[in-house]
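Technical appendix A lists one of the benchmark inputs used to test multi-chain prediction within the project. The record comprises two sequence entries:
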Amino acid sequence: MNIILHIFKKDIRYYWPEALISVVLTGVFVWYQPYQWATCTSQFRFFANVLEILPLFMILAWLFLIVRIVQAESLIGDRQFWITRPFEWPKLLCAKLLFTAAFILLPVFAGQIILLKLALFPATPYLLDLVWLELMLFLALVIPSLAIASLNPGIGRTALTLIVLILFIIGMSGLLTLFPDSSFRLIRMTEFNK
Amino acid sequence: MICLVAAIAIIFFQFRSRKSKISWLILASTVLAVGILVLLPAMTDLTDSFMPRATSGHPLPAKLALDHTVAFNRDSKQSLEFFGNQVRVVFPIHLDNFAEGTLLKIRGVKLDLDLPTTEHWTSKWQSLQEVVFPARTRIWPWAEVSRKILERYANSVVNAHLTLSVDVYRLGESHTLAISGNYLELPGGTHCGLGMQRTYYAGACFSPLRNMGPFLIEAKLPNEECQQYSGPHVNVGGLRLRAVLFLRKAFFQILT
């Protein structure tokens, strides 16, 4: 446990700006939600447009944060300083997961509770649902980001991997347009499987 | 699920042994598997497995037939003028024997034409979103047809086969809703704020996390002969803004 906390504290010391940006973006998201519910037009159209795509920035910030903390102890090669330390890999992994829980999952959880309150819903009956939502976020975002980060030695290579993956998705979408009713059939099949 | 398992495997291999060759192999295999899984249903016709045909055991709760009483007649001297390469062809379909407590949602349409040249032409599946309420007696599904086909065969007799993809909803428990001011509470803890938008009356509904199933709201107007409907809306959920529009549906029945 000491080792886990030691790595966790070290990561906070080194990566607090990235963590702060992530938390601030979550805060702005929570602050802006009630304005979206009201569907009123903002006088500051530029900022309103930026805030519309805030979830995208949040995801990018989370991804960046995960990449930074995972690559602090590079998992590529055998010449890193950290592998001469008495670190066991499960403890290293736990420390990284603890960091994502503290600076991504926990702020989102708190934000969801605040949003429930703002929408005049009691939070207690929905705690389990909130935990389920956190689990989904963990599985859909944190785990894939950890995997991509652990595969690459630096931020440049990580960006390259992501670009290749995005190009693959664009290419697949392009291929699907060759079959005129493919999108319709995919949607119907997905709905049927639900 | 494949991506998740692959990601966990990559994390395990990287943290445990830092053998990136195995991890890259896992990533490449996953990308390949996802590609195959996405392209395969698009390339092969599995339509019957996820859009089963109506059977005697599971019949369509309404009788649909081409309405011969409606004809879009034109003067023989009058030429057809089309805009764009795809022309929307509308079919008058008469509805009969609508089963009580059911609702239809037309999701897609496919038109097959047997051309006089013995060739076969298909529009393939096209998306269509139309909710059909029990009070309806006529619907107007449409399919986009290639302009070349229409120009060539507009004055010929062509055998056409229209296939509709329909979701059938069975109406469940009903509740009486009371609007107080501009506030409406739906069963299941959903709150709605109602207000007049530019040209329509709309509601913004909030439901806490758990998704609501499809629902139908019926409102009696001061004029008893007209009714207003909304929905069905699938997955009204999360703390996201969900608009409910109250639109006058009477225009569908103009020709009845």
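Helices of chain B lie at 2-17, 20-43, 47-50, 147-153. Residues 226-241, 247-256 of chain B have pLDDT under 50 and may be disordered. Comparable benchmark entries are summarised in Table A2.
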